[in-house]
Amino acid sequence: MILCYFVARIWAGVNVVIDPVLQVKTLKTSFQDKNRQITVVDGIDFEIGRNEVVALVGESGCGKSMTSLSIMQLLPRSGTISGGEIRFRGQNLLKLNRREMSRVRGRQISMIFQEPMTSLNPVLTIGLQMTEAIVRHLNVKKPEANAIADEWLRRVGFPEPTRTRKQFPHQLSGGMRQRVMLAMAMACQPELLIADEPTTALDVTIQAQVLDLMRQLLKETGMSVLFITHDLGVVAEMADRVIVMYAGQIVETADVRSIFTSPLHPYTKGLLQSTPRMQGSIEKLVPIPGSVPPAGTVLPGCRFADRCPIATAECRERLPELRVIRPGHSVRCIKA
Ligand SMILES: Nc1ncnc2c1ncn2[C@@H]1O[C@H](COP(=O)(O)OP(=O)(O)OP(=O)(O)O)[C@@H](O)[C@H]1O
User: Fold this and answer.
1) Less CB within 10 Å around the terminal CB: N or C of the chain?
2) Do residues 196 and 222 touch, judged by C-beta distance below 8 A?
């Protein structure tokens, strides 16, 4: 019976995810620009399993952040989710009202951003900002919320958490602020953490420390993570599975090992060739020529064709489907 279920799912072109926490189905997100709708996330499907770290990768402008902001329903005012479903533990988040969704945010799904200063209020102490969320979501009194905040601040590396609670964001360094954000995100023990380029703004040594800390906390808590990054080094360190996005669509998805050892889409190969590696021979980095087409560009064929080294006339005729090549590995390329 169980075997039949998995065979059916593979046959249906879905990657096998056991016990999905999040299911994104044919998600479409658009912006209204004067008289036309610009689609920036174009019918993407993916799932995140329990305890799984899924990396969403792609160049700037591919639609990674709009995907995560759609899940959280925190899109800019001109953006709307124009189709699809976002199921968290089976419940379609798009059917929730504002109040119900604000209960999910922070309690069941937390998010951390690239620049903590955009999320932290500069005029409130760290303690006030942390305990406000803890009191609201965990329904505890202030002294207990303080104790929970101290516990998490200690876990992310502040030896004197009571003192840190009394500080304002500007009194901390960038790395410290990101660790505070991590403590805030973890304090209500959400099931899913969305981390949007959490270490991009930090220098490399601090970046390594924050990644180490995240890995350790994820192991301890068993949380699921959607990790958004354009840094393949970070992907190799953190992810179990990788989703490669290009121009609002998924072009390849596979487990992290397959992405690095046997990538199939020319875009994924291009990303890997343009990333420095520590091991092996010193090879020349090969940048991908051109750039991501502006959002709303509608071409009849493959969206990567203009930059693809192996594209033929056939590639420009019709949009390829995302095909399952083997269980867990799908690609949107007719040449793969
Ligand atoms: N407020 C907005 N109005 C109109 N278009 C927008 C808006 N915000 C983003 N976009 C467009 O949506 C597309 C996807 O943007 P998104 O921020 O998701 O890309 P990204 O892959 O996360 O890139 P980055 O790594 O630079 O954050 C881009 O073409 C961008 O120009």
Assistant:
1) N
2) no
Q: Is 300 inside a domain boundary? A: no
Residues with CB under 6 A from ligand 1: 31, 40, 58, 60-66, 76, 78, 230, 295
Distance 66 CA to ligand 1 centre (A): 6
Q: Are 237 and 65 in contact, with CB atoms under 8 Å apart?
A: no
Across 187-206, average pLDDT: 88
Within this chain, do residues 151 and 173 fall inside the same structural domain, yes or no?
A: yes
Domain count, the chain: 2
**Whole domain around residue 179: which residue ranges?**
116-189
Model pLDDT for residues 133-172, shown as the tens digit of each residue: 999 999 999 999 999 999 999 999 899 999 999 999 999 9
The radius of gyration computed from the CA coordinates of the chain, to the nearest angstrom, equals: 21
User: Relative to the CA of 31, which ligand 1 atom is closest?
Assistant: 4
Which ipTM did the prediction report?
A: 0.95
Q: Does 154 map to a domain? A: yes
> How many angstroms is it from 31 CA to the middle of ligand 1?
10
In this structure, what token pair is assigned to residue 334? Answer: 């007719």
Residues 228 and 246 grouped into a single domain:
yes
